[in-house]
Design goal:
The complex is a heterodimer of chains A (311) and B (316). Chain A has 311 residues and is an alpha/beta fold. Helix content of chain A is 37%, strand content 29%. With 316 residues, chain B is mostly helical. In chain B, helix 2 runs parallel beside helix 7 and helix 9 packs antiparallel against helix 10. The chains are: A alpha/beta (311), B mainly alpha (316).
């Protein structure tokens, strides 16, 4: 297996009885990448992460994390992989610092090192002020940040975040995502599983879409958009009155326009770049009246919906 | 190994600061002190010139105000302590979402269950040793008769038996905590089993013995003994009985072997010439009792261990 890829799976599969949770998954994630693992609930994201961690045994296939086989050498894998589970919990009666201290002890960190690192990390995640408070008093967003801190404690080479932004407010989401970006800047390879697309789009260098245990698409968000929709990346919605006959064909002739669809009084123009000025001029030149024009960028949402409708 | 120690230290700290443990310990201290106080008040009544082991009598005498001896109290409370230490060992980690986080740390999975079990055992040992030390000290002040070397050794054996007895209940509770997802279920199951063994088993045993070997007032001694044999055999399913027998042999050496004399106690105590068993003999007699308690503990632990090791770990 190649040196560059930190995570590599080959035909990785997991079946629970007749139910196939993960099916022949082939994945490669390189060092320092932030890989977004997308898929609806039950698509097999968590199962894949658990197999990569060695907490679940694959039915068939191989996984490698930094060259280690998680099934055979779970301890080596767990030493370098930080994992934030989906419904992360802490000891609610104990303080944030104590909780992190425990993780440090479980990782065999010497006490003085641990204390210093815990202080740094609490600062980074913005929980230094509440370090002595019981975790039970924390908000969901704070707990999630504590979860990120818990991952940081062991200074991992690879970090798995399972739905890190589920159920927290927009500000909290932002904070968590910023922290994840910070980690990736320090050469940590990150796998982020989520079904909240916008956030994934913001931080991921590459995404893989998982549906019913299969990887249906993989690549950068841009490329997936183009692949999935066949057309452009932007969609301009035009509301027009007094439409003339030649309008559609003249819009189609603009460079960069890939498709034009027409409904009652709306025209939907797909294009590679933002062609609003050109389209507007064409409409006016043709003698029609432009009432309203909107532009939408295709995001993961469309890509995602598209793939799930197919599968 | 560092993983086991880290878990052990954390669990130990948790136990000693948990409200449930503090409340239970206070209760036990209170009960223990009360029984010894009453025993010291009443200790003179049964003593003759030939009585040996006066100090041990502190632990077996009870009075009218408090018709429980100290070991009886312990046999009641130790199971509760054991259950309190173990019933949420695994399932609370799971429901709180700590388990998957814990298991993603670089430690073997069995470290979790080993560390927890050891911490529980250690807590139990500290509790039992301290309570016996406290009541023995208090009794010593009250009656002013120092224990002989043999009495001290017998007390140590008694402490050992009590710890194992508690360990059994703890490992049973740990077993339930692995099998039941909810802590409420596991604690209720443990307590239900405790009540059954403590209250109902002897009634059931009496009925079965009555059916197997019917007796009445005119029955021969042989028949009575056979009936009693059946009764005790069934009763020995319960660790309470086993512990009770061990305690009796250790603290009441005059009575000899429970399997031959228990029945005769009520008949014979009045006029019996005390000829206490030597310590070595007593230990030989309780050996099966102790090993069966240890075996039961190990069995419960082994089942929970296997179940826990094979389990699928999911956060949801």
């Amino acid at each position: 297996m190649s040196q560059q890829s930190v995570i590599e799976t080959k035909d990785l599969a997991k079946a629970y009885g007749n139910f196939v949770a993960v099916d022949q998954l082939n994945l490669r994630v390189g060092e320092g990448e932030v890989f977004g693992f997308l898929g609806p609930n039950g698509a097999g994201k968590t199962t894949t992460l658990l197999m990569l961690l060695g907490l679940t045994e694959p039915t068939s296939g191989v996984a490698r994390v930094c060259g280690y086989d998680p099934t055979r050498e779970p301890l080596n894998v767990k030493r370098i992989v930080g994992y934030l589970p989906e419904k992360v919990g802490f000891y609610e009666d104990l303080s944030a610092r104590y909780n992190l201290d425990y993780t440090a002890a479980l990782n065999g960190l010497p006490r003085e090192d641990a204390a210093r690192r815990i202080n740094e990390i609490l600062d980074t995640v913005g929980l230094a002020d509440v370090a002595e408070q019981k975790v039970g008093e924390f908000s969901h967003g704070m707990k999630q940040r504590l979860g990120v801190a818990d991952v940081m404690i062991k200074a991992p080479k690879v970090a798995f975040f399972d739905e890190p932004t589920a159920g927290i407010d927009p500000e909290g989401i932002d904070q968590v995502l910023t922290l994840i970006t910070t980690m990736s800047k320090k050469k940590v390879t990150v796998i982020l599983s989520s079904h909240q697309l916008h956030q994934v789009q913001k931080v991921c260098t590459r995404v893989g879409i998982l549906a019913k245990g299969r990887l249906v698409a993989e690549g950068s968000v841009d490329r997936l958009g183009r692949d999935a929709l066949g057309g452009g990346k932007f969609r301009i919605e035009l509301q027009i009155s007094q439409r003339t006959g030649k309008l559609i064909s003249s819009i189609k002739s603009i460079r960069g326009v890939t498709n034009v669809e027409s409904t009652d009084d709306l025209l939907l123009v797909s294009c590679d770049e933002d062609l609003r000025p050109q389209v507007a001029r064409t409409v006016v030149d043709s003698g029609s009246l432009l009432v309203q024009m909107k532009i939408e960028e295709y995001g993961l949402e469309e890509i995602y919906m598209k793939y799930f409708r197919e599968s | 190994m560092s993983g086991v120690m880290a878990i052990f230290r954390k669990e130990l700290a948790d136990h000693f600061t948990s409200k449930r443990f503090i409340i239970l310990s206070l209760l036990i201290y209170l009960a223990g002190i009360a029984t010894i106080y009453v025993a010291a008040q009443n200790i003179r009544s049964g003593i003759t010139e030939t009585t040996q082991f006066i100090f041990l009598r502190l632990f077996i005498v009870s009075g009218e105000t408090l018709p429980f001896s100290f070991p009886l109290f312990l046999s009641l409370f130790i199971p509760i302590v054991g259950i309190a230490l173990g019933f949420d060992a695994i399932n609370s980690e799971r429901t709180s979402g700590n388990l998957s986080r814990l298991l993603s740390q670089p430690l073997y999975r069995d470290s979790v269950i080993n560390g927890k079990f050891l911490a529980g055992l250690f807590t139990l040992a500290i509790l039992v040793v301290s309570i016996v030390a406290v009541v023995a000290g208090m009794g010593l002040r009250m009656i002013g008769v120092p224990p002989s070397a043999e009495e001290v050794l017998r007390l140590f054996a008694f402490i050992f038996a009590s710890i194992i007895y508690g360990a059994f209940w703890m490992s049973l509770a740990v077993l339930f905590s692995v099998f039941f997802r909810r802590t409420a279920t596991s604690v209720l199951a443990s307590i239900a089993l405790w009540i059954f063994l403590f209250l109902f088993l002897s009634m059931i045993a009496r009925v079965i013995a009555g059916a197997a070997v019917p007796i009445d007032q005119n029955s021969s001694l042989e028949l009575l003994l056979r009936n009693d044999e059946v009764y005790r055999t069934i009763n020995r399913i319960s660790p309470n009985t086993v512990y009770g027998e061990a305690v009796q042999v250790l603290l009441m050496p005059e009575l000899g072997n429970p399997s031959t004399t228990l029945m005769l106690v009520s008949i014979a105590t009045a006029g019996m010439i005390p000829s206490p068993l030597p310590l070595g003999q007593s230990l030989l007699i309780v050996w099966p009792q102790l090993t069966s308690l240890i075996a039961l503990t190990a069995l419960c632990f082994a089942i929970s261990y296997i179940k826990f090791m094979r389990e699928e770990i999911r956060s949801t």
